[in-house]
Write a structure and sequence with these properties.
The protein is of the alpha/beta class and about 270 residues long. The chain is built from 9 helices and 10 strands. It has a domain of about 180 residues: P-loop containing nucleotide triphosphate hydrolases (Rossmann fold).
Length: about 270
């Protein structure tokens, strides 16, 4: 049983009532709006450093990472344990800020935004998938997927319609009434992907989404991500496994908090 007893902090914060935008901040209000500004990369990270301090000890987890990810790209981030992958992912997902450097998300500098605004951005533009699925137990798939839309302004009918469509898109149209314990690992992860998709995010971030899955379930999840990539979604996926990274079109390797290599790949689907 891998689901958590409570929804994770990021999910709770992403379903809070929507704040009014600070007047000086202009953000497109839907993913559709995002696709109308093709010039800006979805991710533009420049010279990002992250230092964690615990008492007198500092851990320099990221050391000057610069990275641009254009719209529609499917990127895998690899590197040994402790190389800074999750630290980078937390910054890309606006769950944490860099100590130095800039991060522009679809052209918007997120550095000075307050917590409510960041929560709203997470809710609107970013879908996160984690190794541990983070589904709410004893709650059927449909309700799990509806959760990110529980904020004011989305009617019950629309929530239901979108959740059903998202579950259909990951091939689980016939499992909407199952609770997580009644689903296989791969199916649970696909529910988590549906939940990440239901707000129509421009960017999907997946931190070891197949880390807990057997090979058949891994194939299911990778197939789902591939279809999303073919639809033009931007995907950043962290993995330890070469087999998984081979599905992406670009592989970035981190070592000691810095980019070691950044290569286009010949995917398992043939040349992109
Ligand atoms: N909240 C934190 N406080 C202090 N140090 C941290 C924190 N999170 C990560 N670190 C440290 O920062 C470095 C990078 O950690 P990170 O979690 O980004 O690695 P990772 O590449 O995701 O590793 P893994 O493959 O094991 O998940 C590590 O040395 C880790 O100990
Ligand atoms: Mg990690």
């Amino acid at each position: 049983m891998t689901a958590f007893a409570h929804p994770p902090r990021w999910l709770i914060s992403s379903v809070r009532p929507r704040p009014v935008w600070p007047r000086e901040v202009t953000v497109p209000r839907s993913a559709a709006a995002v696709t109308r500004s093709p010039a800006a990369p979805v991710i533009d990270v420049q010279e990002v450093h992250k230092t964690y301090r615990i008492g007198d000890i500092s851990v320099h987890a990221l050391r000057g990472v610069s990275l641009r990810v254009p719209r529609g790209e499917y990127v895998a981030i690899m590197g040994s344990s402790g190389s800074g992958k999750s630290t980078l992912m937390n910054i890309l997902g606006c769950l944490d800020g860099p100590t130095a450097g800039t991060y522009r998300l679809d052209g918007l500098d997120v550095r000075d935004l307050d917590e409510d605004t960041l929560a709203d951005i997470r809710g609107r533009f970013i879908g996160c998938v984690f190794q541990s699925f983070n589904l709410v137990p004893r709650t059927r798939a449909l309700a799990n997927v509806e959760l990110p839309m529980s904020y004011a302004g989305v009617s019950r009918t629309v929530r239901r319609e979108r959740a059903l469509a998202a579950l259909g898109a990951v091939g689980l149209g016939d499992r909407v009434d199952h609770i997580p314990a009644e689903l296989s690992g791969g199916q649970q992860q696909r529910v988590a992907i549906a939940r990440a998709l239901v707000t129509d995010p421009a960017l999907i971030l997946a931190d070891e989404p197949t880390g807990n899955l057997d090979s058949a379930s891994t194939e299911e999840v990778l197939g789902t991500l591939e279809r999303l990539s073919d639809e033009g979604r931007t995907i950043v996926l962290i993995t330890h496994e070469d087999e998984v990274a081979r599905h992406a079109r670009r592989v970035i390797r981190l070592r000691d908090g810095a980019i070691l290599s950044d290569q286009r790949t010949q995917t398992t689907r043939g040349l992109a």
